Amino acid sequence: MEENFEHPVYDKNTIEFVTVANEFCILLESSSKISKMDFINRSQKLLPLLYLKSSLLPKVENEFEGEIEKFVGEGDWEYIRTAVLEKMGANDEYLEVFDDGMRDSDEPIVASISENFADIYQDLKDFLTSYRIASVEIMNDALWDLNNNFHQYWGQSIVNSLRAIHYLLAHPEKLEDDLNEHGPSSLDRLDMSQSIFSQRQQQWGNQEE
Questions:
Q1: What is the dihedral of CA 117, 123, 125, 127, to 10 degrees?
Q2: Model confidence over 84-136: pLDDT tens digits?
């Protein structure tokens, strides 16, 4: 069937978002292969670009009832969280200032870059998978879902993570070396046989820049 290339899923802003989202996913999937400083520097550059491209996505209405298919499972989320946690080490946690719970708590709320990144990754990878293997109708609903989740959830996670990363780069004395950076990794203990990485590796997973 002939594609409608004037559809918003083929809009210039959508294509540019796909490029940046893919770069961010590749960074997280390959984080174990680069240094901590390289990971932080690249995150600093990709996060604002990802936020910008997300904010420019065209608005669409969903065409199907019910939720669209999701591809990133709990194991994939945990893999990314663990990989980023091991890379960030003692610098993974930061104090949150934009949390509704702060209004009812006298204690500071601690947030995690690794959990933020895993949440962002989950939505990005779900969208990218739908975008690459699906019909225009499913791509449309994946775009609709992505827009909603950006405004309600992970858009704030991008901003919060960037604030924490900016602080680390502005205060390099706060950066702590990870003693186990080149030692055994807890990633090796995760069962990824049913993960999206194993299922999609031949098509689009684990790409190198």
A1: -150
A2: 999 999 999 998 865 555 555 566 688 999 999 999 999 999 999 999 987 89
Query: Helices 74-88 and 113-133 meet at what angle, rounded to 10?
Result: 140
- Condensed to tens digits (0 to 9), the pLDDT of residues 31-42 reads 999 999 999 999
Give the 3-state secondary structure of residue 122: helix
CA 115 to chain CA mean position, Å = 10
**What's the one-letter identity of residue 100?**
D
Alpha carbon of 61 to those of 7, 64, 161: distances in Å?
Answer: 12, 9, 30
Q: What share of the chain is helix, strand, coil (3-state, %, to 5)?
A: 65, 5, 30
Q: Provide DSSP, 111-160.
A: EEHHHHHHHHHHHHHHHHHHHHHS-HHHHHHHHHHHHHHIIIIIHHHHHH
Tokens representing residue 114 in the block: 């690794």
Q: Rounded CA gap, 22 and 78, in Å?
A: 19
Q: Which domains does the chain have, with CATH numbers?
A: 9-61+82-175 (1.20.120.1550)
- Phi, psi (degrees; rounded to nearest 5) at 7: -70, 150
